[in-house]
Amino acid sequence: MKNKIIILTVFAGLLLSAxxxxxxxxxxxxxxxxDFLKTREENVESYINNLYTxxxxxxxxxxxVRGEEVNSDNILSEKYDMRLNGENNQFSGSDDWNKGYKNLxxxxxxxxxxxxxxxxxxxxxxxxxxxxxxxRAYWHFYLLTRFGNIPIMDDFWDGNATLGxxxxxxxxxxxxxxxxxxxxxxAIGLIPEARANLHSRSKYSGLRVNxxxxxxxxxxVALYEGSWEKYHKxxxxxxxxxxxxxFKEVMNWGDQYLFPVGLTLHMTATNPKAxxxxxAFSELFxxxxxxxxSEVTFWKKYSIADGVFNTVTQQLxxxxxxxxxxxxxxxxxxxxxxxxxxxxxxxxxxxxxxxxEVFKDRDGRLLAMVMHTGCKFKSNSLMNVRAYDxxxxxxxxxxxxxxxxxxxxxGDGIYKNVTGFHTRLGIDTTYVTGNCETAHVMFRYAxxxxxxxxxxAELGLYNDGVAEKTLKPLRQRAGVxxxxxxxxxxxxxxxxxxxxQEVRRERRSELxxxxxxxxxxxxxxVAGTLKGVEGxxxxxYLGKDGVLYLSFSPTLRKEGxxxxxxxxxxxxxxxxxxxxxxxxxxxxxxxxxPIPPDEIQMDHELNQNPGWPTK
Length: 615
Fold this sequence. Notes:
Layout lengths: L32 H4 L4 H11 L23 E3 L16 H20 L9 H25 L25 H18 L20 H21 L11 H16 L20 H8 L9 E5 L11 H6 L9 E3 L1 H6 L27 H6 L6 E3 L2 E2 L11 H7 L39 E5 H14 L5 H6 L1 H7 L20 H14 L5 H7 L8 H4 L11 H4 L3 H6 L37 H6 L13
Antiparallel strand pairs: 1-3, 2-6, 4-5
């Protein structure tokens, strides 16, 4: 297994689906299921390798997680999110339920038939068993975030595949979270510790699940449950408040497990080739090989030679933000990033009507995430927004303005941008035009720092010592001065302690376009703030006095920009016609998905989630 690239092959046979629909079918390890996991290390490895295939990563085509946050306030798409608009129905949870329990069944099949003797149970075999505990924790957490109280699948349920045997009670969400944390403790107890003062991820260069990744997932789980129970307290979504316990658990995992490992952030100072404040952060997402970047504890490698590739660079450099409909990054996301002096922006300041002013002296992560003047779409296409020179003949005008390359507001289909803000994060700097090998980050140390900082802030324990090991180094990498947290009147969520506000800001700056935002909106109980006309989001300024509008030729202004939707003040308003009254998120229902009706009919121990029909 040394130095293997995990390019995993699905076994012959059918990957089994939902927990109740497929319990009477045998797994695919034919012909001798009972003996497959008894002796050979190669069999154990092969089975565990197959569990990796279910983890989210960009497929061969599309942009994967870069476009996932259409389900939040980070990306605005003409294909708006149905859950945010209260359009889900009682069957909307079926795919997530089936996916979660299908993958749990695969893990529990391993535990049920695993029978390697002590003589054959090498460190490698035990480590693989530890990975199985990680996967069981991962998929239980997947279900917890979507459904709340869930049946814990801690055994291979096929032996109970009768109607009576499948009357399995739900576990309340706090106990489910504790179960997940115990599985993660089991994982780090079996995966070998660091050797020769190296962290666990170093053994396989982060290409396999390791102790550090399990630690970060544990902090994610405890933070999620703690904040859910705190902010949903007093509603039907949280019947008890164990938030202090879980916030303390986050800090305990950091102090006792993660921090002693010795991981570090990938900083500009450690890269002699870095010249800009956004280089170090960008390299986490636009590189092919992350094996030497310890911050990235777990990642997926692509290899065109082996037939495993993606087209993320091709899609993003073509202007795609969402693979389904015309879209763009939101002004709300752009406004979140600080100035380099550590002060927040005032989004009402008239200077931000100038597209180029938006990016001046700002957080390096904004520059890494959003295309702006000076960025390359492709190797021969540089974004350059300036006023179109209309003097001279038509031919003279073309020559004088040939360097202008504006956001693709007049593109076609998914290549049309509806906010003026294109995604830059993840574009390979070699600017390949076809298949590419851009690596995919699944877990990194920065998330652990943010979990720790948020838990400390929620407990009232955020201080200079916490800042020194969490927010300060993150802002240092982004070229932003650290300023003592103070209330920001323009922050989207008001009434928060300043430390909590700043950790939430930092989380959005560091983790946007990486699949975290929806879970954050749900656990903080703030999805309701997106309701109404203002909540549907805006884009860049396209008033006729602004440089973005003036960067288009007179012809394109008439023929290409007349379809762009704006509000009464000239800011792009792409969902104006799609959501004329704004989002209609149902705060009494939509914080959890509905349990599939057929599951409730079969398992009478299940109760439907709040607000959903019981029949």
